[in-house]
Structures are given as C-alpha cells and as structure tokens.
Amino acid sequence: MKINIGQLLSNRAFLSPGMEAFVGDAYRYTFRDVNERANRFAALLAKSGIRPGDRIAVFCKNNEHATTAMFGAAKTGVITLMLNWRLQAPELIYILSDCSARLVLYDAEFAGMIDQLRGQVPAETYLRVGGEGPDKEFTASLAGLPATEPALVGDDDDPAVLMYTSGTTGRPKGVMLTHNNLFWASLGLMHTIDWAYRYRYLSVAPLFHIGGLAPIFGNVHAGCTTVFMPNFDPVKIWDIIVKERINFTMTVPAMLQFMLMAPDIGKKDLSSIKHIVCGGSAVPQNLIMTYDKIGIAIDHVYGITEYSGAVTFWIAAMGMDKSDSMGKTVFHGCIKIFRPDSDEEVMTGDVGEICCAGPQTFKGYWNNREATEAVIRNGYYRSGDLGRVDEDGFLYVVDRLKDMIISGSENIYPAELEQVIKNHPGVAEVAVVGKPDAKWGEIPVALIVKRPEAVVSEQEIVELCRKNLASYKCIREVRFISAIPKNAVGKVLKKDLREQIK
Q1: Domain of 457, in residue numbers
Q2: Residue 310: pLDDT above 90?
Q3: How many CA atoms lie within 13 A of 57 on its CB side?
Q4: What percent of the chain stands above pLDDT 70?
Q5: What's the distance, CA 195 to chain centroid?
Q6: Among 234, 332, 322, 316, which Cα is nearest to 277's?
C-alpha cells in the first residue's frame, strides 16, 4: 500500500467524523470539517496552477490553517515548507529562494514582513489569514470550492514537508521529509509513549520546529484532538490545560521552568494531565523531580529534524535512576554509536557519534547532494552529536561533535560542564566553549549570565567544577556576560561566543 500523509486525515475523518480535531480561539473543527477544508485547499492549489512537486510556504503561528493547508497540499503531491516566523527578511529571502516556493500562506500579523519579501522571492501568490490587506483571505478563498477527495498524488519516498535547519554553522539546509518518514515517525511516537485515542494535545511548541510539527501527524493517526496555542504564556497555559482537559503537550526546558513561576498552580484541577513531553535540550533532573512532586510526569525526548522528530524517549516507567539519560530508541527506530572518523561501531559505554537508521531517516537536503552525502553513509544518518549507550540500551547525549574541546589530548564535552554549572543558584544561563591556548591546545571557558541580583564569583564556579569533575575537565576561565547569543530557534551560537573570547 502506498503511503500519502494527507490520506491520514481522510481516514481519520472517515473513522471519527464528529470528533473534535482542531480547536483554537473562536473555532472548533471536527475531523470531517478539517478534512473538507483540506480538500478545498487542495482544489485551490490546483486552481492556482500549483502542481505536484511544487513548494508552498506556511508563515503562521500554531493554528488550524497551518496544518490544514499542509494536509491538503500533501494530498496533491505539493511540498509544504514550515517557515520560522522569528527570522528576519534576509534569512527568509534566502530560504524562499532556495526552495522556490510558489505560494506563501501567512498570518495577518506578519503582513509587514511579507511586504518586505514581495518581489524578492519567487512566490507568485500570497494568502492572508485574518485581518485586512491586498491579498486574498484564506478561509474566504476556500468558499465554493469542492470538498470532495482529490485524486491522491505523491506517496512513499516523495517529499511532503521541508524543514530548514537553524544554520548555526552556515546557510540553512532544507531537510526533505517524505510521506513514509512522517508516517513511520508518527507510529514511533504512538507506540513508545502514552499516546491514546481521544487524548487531547496542546500544540504550543512552534510548528516550524520538528518537535512542534511531528505530534500533529501522531494526533491525526491516533485520533487525538489538537488544541492550538499560538503564543506561549506560562500563566495562560495552565488555564487552557484546565479548560480544555489537556492530556499532554510538547515543551522545551525553559517553558517548564517559566510555567513553575505561575501563581496558584496547586489550586488548579490538573487531573487531566497524563504527561508532558520535553526536549530541545537536556532536561535537568531537578526539573523532572519538581514536576513529579506536583503529580506531573515528564517524558524526556531527544529529537532530530533529519530523523523526522523523536529518536529516543525516557519516561518515568524506565526508572528514575535513568532520568539523566535520553532513554531508549523509539519503536521502529535504530541508533548505533560509531567512531566519529569511521564506520566502526564503538564498544558499549564508549563515546562516539550518534548515528540513526530506519524509515524515519530523511530523504536528503534540498538541492544539496554534497551535504546529503556528507551525513548519510551506509544507510545511517551521522547526527554530529556525541553520545554513548549503556549496557541497558539507554542513550546518553554528551555534546555536539563540533563543540568538543581537546585540551592536552583529552576530550572535554562542554555540555557536561554546563550541566554542573547550571546547579549554581546564581546562574541563569551558561555556555562553555574552547579557547585557543599555546600550552594545552584549548582550554574550557564558561560564559555565564547571572540571575538578577545574584552575586557569583569566578572562584565559586571553578570550585563547583572541581568538586564534580575530573581536574582536566575543569573550567579555566569564567566570563560574565549580559546575554548568550542564540539563533531564531533558541540554539546557542557557540561560534559567536568563540569569537568573543579569542
């Protein structure tokens, strides 16, 4: 049987036509409603002359129109690009030109940015969602178009979605995710963690991030309601959880931290919550424990865009003694640890490069064969992350390969030092990078943002490291800075930090 991820929606609408599918401010659509809207959008694409293999771009926050358009496009073989709405005009111009997107669907609040793009990118058609302006409005454009199922075009190994990497080391690259990739990734989610029929999911992690987008396919596949929250608010999120009887959601550690600052959490009826998935970076054990004390289980996920989302999960049932790990590989997934400079697998417990295989592995980078061949070898995706697998099969992510510091011929992993330094109560954020050194080759330097009003000394940080780490790993210098530079998806720009300390 051929797989088209647009057909997931058709099948769910057939099985659960009256179930709430997509919920948001001022709308509640059933699966029948959403499927008909997707079909109308497919008809709109055909009417606009957009053909199988063409690309459209979605420049929207988390809302039903973004995902409805994606499913409608998939049914007709059109590839959807989820654009990062935090990017600036030059970055967007590069991405839209690189993939030659022919249509841009955008939220009215981004009209100013869209005006900067007109004439600078290949797009011929712009569709506005809400508000007023020169472009046709999305919902109004669907009126009168047929809601019947279009003939399915595109399947299996044809690209369905484009996700551009964050570009921390150069120009962003378009990750091609196929119908098969997204189908198998959704199965991996549903069969690894608690993801059941009629669960209600809060979509707050941005859809331009694979951690925000992948759950949408899992929800349609499993028969779950998606409640959209376009803007994260650490107070309002609890109110939505209570009102909508949310069972689970996807977050990053910073979101969990902010949510704990909301007042009167203990007075709210949080009995609906089954668990909260958290990833994007390592989830501190003390954060997992804090949520456990208020009766909320945290699932720790390690994900990669090029792997269509989740690679591994740690859940409480695997044992709290393993909560510092990234857990075990998702159902239908496979990881191995290879030597960074070869295809030789390392011994159990040894550190090497995390390499992934399975039906979730992406097709390649858009129009970039050289970059694709550099990371896909012998069926494995070379992640560039360093890690180890213990004797029980649990993955521990050590650091990024490119961030590793070699000091006196010893390998030092910045993430390990950062984890220790984060335990200092006066530290708000920390990043560790290597600084060239005539004697040692490199030395580790900690760049720290202090909490407001906190008093932290360099000596305190050095002593903290000495108490918790081998002497060769310890911080040699500490610099206090006002902010740590990050890109549009919140990843630390260590290249910029290395430039600062030269």
Answers
A1: 404-500
A2: yes
A3: 29
A4: 98
A5: 18
A6: 316
Distance CA 65, CA 219 (A): 16
Sheet with 427-437: strands ordered across:
427-437, 441-450, 477-480
C-alpha dist (Å) from residue 328 to 7, 311, 313, 349, 497? 30, 8, 6, 14, 33
In a domain, 104, yes or no: yes
Q: Which residue type sits at 388?
A: R
Give the separation between CA 37 and CA 424, rounded to whole angstroms.
51
Element (H, E) at 242: helix 236-243
Q: Which helix (H) or strand (E) holds 232?
A: none
Structure tokens at 428: 């708000």
3-state secondary structure of 202: strand
**Mean pLDDT, rounded, for 193-210:** 96
The structure's pTM equals 0.86
CB 343 within 8 A of CB 371: no
Cβ-contact 324, 312 below 8 angstroms: no
- For residue 71, the domain's CATH number is 3.40.50.12780
Domain final position from 389, 422, 454: 389
The neighbouring-strand residues paired with 81 are 57, 162
**pLDDT tens for residues 397-451?**
987 777 878 786 667 878 888 888 988 999 999 999 988 887 777 889 999 999 9
Spell out the SS3 assignment of 433-498. Answer: EEEEECCCEEEEEEEEEECCCCCCCHHHHHHHHHHHCCHHHCCCEEEECCCCCECCCCCECHHHHH
